[in-house]
Write a structure and sequence with these properties.
heterodimer, A: 273 residues, alpha/beta, Rossmann fold, 2 domains, six-stranded mixed β-sheet, four-stranded antiparallel β-sheet, 12 helices, B: 471 residues, mainly alpha, two-stranded antiparallel ribbon, two-stranded parallel ribbon, 18 helices
Chain lengths: 273, 471
């Protein structure tokens, strides 16, 4: 892939996040390109989820600029309210601990994700209340999109079951499908393989690759499962204690001494020397 | 099984002993003022009956818990029979007490059995289809009964009054259901919007001469406006904090009504509010100048009941509008967003849903229906004062929603009949009726912790119902 020509989808510049005296992220800069999977890895407490929370508007960064350049123009994410980032800048995310709407059915979960589009089509409920055909068509289109995603994640038969009743692995897939139903430009996945067995995590790899290649969007991925990270990532950013310690393609990262140190600790000779 | 009997008897004996020890002071004697001082008035028969009921009740409960279903049912039946028999007891309440104990015992004995049968049935697709169809038929039958009630032989003034009262609470329950049941916002000051609606009509009709039908939409809009005014600053709060603020708001509205003497006439209230008219005709024996009475218009003899029947149909239609509107909203994106907010606000924000606007619509629409109900209330009572809008009203409406099962429309109807109807019907019980009311609430919450109707019908289905698509 010609790295030099592609403009970055999201550009993170000098991102710093302090909570009182604690510096969770310290001057981190990186970019992620469209049609690529960019993984953010690092030991526990390295600040990976904090980066996500800044990008998706759950935290306001102390310092730094987050620029998203998508098909709809340029957005400075650090200046936007939480829900606007999903609504206008088209950034979708999933959560480390799954956050579905457990009491609602699988299909309803996917329709809620298309809320803003459907709200417009229903004339902010007025046309929908009066039963206008334009709204019904929009709703049918939304159901069709949901159906396609249910086929892709193999949950079509469970469409009318409450989401909370699904097995764990299916809930993970559903959360990704729900994020994709917002038709995002950038998809942020927070540990999607956590708690999956090897077969399920292989399926997840396929799903993520198909999202990159078929839907053509950029994916930001936090993951501990190296079989996922090394197999599908195009680009890897490594954080440790809130700092970026390395960045590059999977082979370069595997052999990077700083990364090995962060994960395995410093070897004795290095201390002695 | 028989080997456990001595243990059960011992346990029941111990419970009865504790009951007797406590009851001596509470039930056994009471002080009576005889003019020169206090003397004791002994109620030993009451105490004895209570202790026997406790003994038998405890015995029956442990039988039921140990799987001896039939002996427990038999014991319950004996107690019901004893309560219903013309036995000489010092007070009528004791009859009720004995019979009620028996009823509870029978329910306890049957419960696990019925529960098992219901869960078993709800697992099969045909059972699910039946329960869905049943719920639908049940709703239509309730509606038919409500429409036909005024023509039935028991439609005397008392029943019709009660019907109007219950329907008012059904409507308020359905309105609050949008806020609490669907959007998951705990609102403890709902009665404030009811008050806004009532005072809107009372003031506009007595001071500006506007009629009921022209004020009705205005009152709804006024209440919705208040909902938005309150909601804007406070809807960023969650859970308990929101509950406290809405509680405070309810009290503030009541205090304003009480103290803004020039506008609301303070605690003296507003009287001689005109009732609703039928195509301009009034419900009265003689019409005021320039107006026509309904009996003149229709050419039928005057009957005081006509007004009540008319009011009954107005509130029935208003309540049905509330219901239809809510059902419709549930199937629209905004309704799904309400439910999604109730389930997980953080996830909603991540999906680009504006939580504040979504909550605000729920709050305003809920308030609007309270406003409609309020102006109906003012037109029905013809006199309103701040006393009608105290916190306990909010609490009762909330209890109706929670007891009915959050978000369930038919559950609200059942709970309103139970909470408003039963205390009225059991007025004969005197002071004990509130005790029975509390007991009923506790029992429902023990046996059905998620409300009477806990089942949630999906707002949309991919596979048609009953096709057994789920696996």
């Amino acid at each position: 892939m010609s790295v030099a020509t592609a403009t970055p989808l999201i550009e993170v510049e000098h991102l710093t996040m302090r909570f009182g005296g604690l510096v969770a992220i310290d001057d981190v800069s990186f970019t992620a390109r469209p049609r690529e999977i960019t993984a953010i890895i690092g030991p526990n407490g390295a600040g990976k989820t904090t980066v996500f929370n800044c990008i998706t508007g759950f935290y306001k960064p102390t310092v730094g600029r987050l620029t998203l350049r998508g098909g709809r123009g340029e957005f400075l994410l650090e200046r936007m309210l939480g829900h606007e980032i999903g609504q206008r800048a088209k950034v979708a995310r999933t959560f480390q601990n799954i956050r579905l709407f457990p009491g609602m059915t699988v299909l309803e979960n996917l329709l809620v994700a298309q809320h803003n589009k459907l709200m417009r089509a229903s004339g902010w409920s007025l046309l929908g209340l009066l039963g206008f055909a334009s709204y019904r068509n929009a709703e049918n289109a939304a159901i069709e999109l949901a159906r396609q995603w249910l086929e892709r994640i193999r949950l079509l038969a469970d469409a009318d079951r409450p989401a909370g009743e699904l097995p764990y692995g299916a809930q993970r897939r559903l959360e990704i499908a729900r994020a994709m139903c917002t038709e995002p430009e950038l998809l942020c996945l927070d540990e999607p393989a956590a708690g999956l067995n090897p077969r399920e995590s292989a399926e997840l790899n396929e799903l993520l690759v198909s999202i990159r290649d078929r839907d053509g969007i950029g994916v930001l991925l936090i993951e501990h499962d190296m079989s996922v990270v090394m197999n599908i990532s195009d680009h890897i950013v490594v954080l440790d204690y809130g700092r970026k310690i390395a960045e590059g393609d999977p082979t370069a990262i595997k052999n990077d001494p700083a990364v090995i140190r962060a994960y395995l600790g410093t070897d004795d000779e290095a201390i002695d020397g | 099984m028989g080997s456990r009997l001595p243990q059960m008897l011992k346990d029941a004996g111990l419970t009865a002993f504790v009951g007797a020890a406590l009851g001596i002071f509470i039930v056994g004697f009471r002080t009576v003022d005889v003019g020169r001082g206090l003397t004791f008035d002994y109620h030993l028969v009451d105490l004895a009956v209570a202790v026997v009921v406790i003994f038998l009740g405890r015995l029956g409960l442990s039988m039921a818990a140990n799987g001896l279903r039939w002996p427990a049912i038999a014991l319950g039946a004996v107690m019901i029979a004893a309560g219903a028999s013309p036995m000489q007891l010092p007070s009528g309440f004791l009859h009720w007490f004995v019979a009620l104990g028996g009823v509870l015992l029978v329910i306890r004995a049957i419960w696990p059995w019925a529960n098992e049968a219901v869960t078993e049935a709800s697992r099969t697709p045909s059972g699910q289809a039946i329960s869905r169809a049943g719920a639908k038929w049940f709703g239509w039958m309730l509606l038919a009964a409500a429409v036909l009630l005024p023509f039935s032989p028991f439609a005397d003034q008392k029943t019709m009054d009660l019907g109007v009262l219950i329907l008012t609470y059904v409507m308020l329950g359905w309105g609050l259901n949008i806020v609490v049941g669907l959007a998951g916002l705990l609102d403890l000051g709902y009665v404030a919007f009811y008050a806004v609606g009532a005072y809107s009509y009372a003031l506009l009709s007595t001071q500006h001469g506007l009629g009921f039908w022209s004020v009705l939409p205005l009152a709804g809009m006024m209440a919705a406006l208040f909902g938005v005014l309150l909601g804007f600053p406070v809807l960023r709060l969650r859970g308990d904090y929101l509950a406290i603020v809405t509680l405070g708001f309810g009290e503030i509205i009541r205090l304003i009504l009480l103290n803004w003497f020039d506008l609301t006439n303070g605690p003296a209230g507003i009287g001689s509010i005109p009732g609703p008219t039928l195509f301009g005709a009034v419900f009265a024996e003689t019409a005021p100048a320039g107006k026509q009475t309904v009996s003149e218009m229709l050419g039928i003899p005057f009957d005081g009941n006509h007004r009540l029947i008319f009011l009954y149909y107005i509130i029935l239609v208003l309540a049905l509008i509330t219901n239809l509107f809510t059902q419709r909203m549930r199937r629209l994106p905004v309704g799904r967003a309400w439910e999604a907010l109730r389930e997980d606000e953080t996830a909603c924000r991540a999906l680009g849903i504006n939580p504040t606007n979504t909550k605000l619509t729920a709050f305003a629409i809920g308030a609007m229906f309270a406003g409609f109900a309020g102006s109906f209330f003012a037109a029905k009572q013809r006199f309103i004062s701040p006393e009608s809008f105290v916190f306990i009203e909010s609490a009762i409406i909330l209890a109706i929603v929670v007891l009915g099962g959050m978000g369930s429309q038919i559950g609200v109807v059942l709970a309103a009949v139970l909470l408003i109807g039963l205390p009225e019907w059991f007025r004969d019980l005197g002071n004990y009726r509130m005790l029975a009311f509390g007991l009923a609430m506790v029992l429902i919450m023990v046996f059905r912790p998620r409300g009477l109707v806990a089942h949630r019908e999906p707002s949309i289905r991919l596979h048609p119902a009953g096709s057994g698509g789920s696996g």
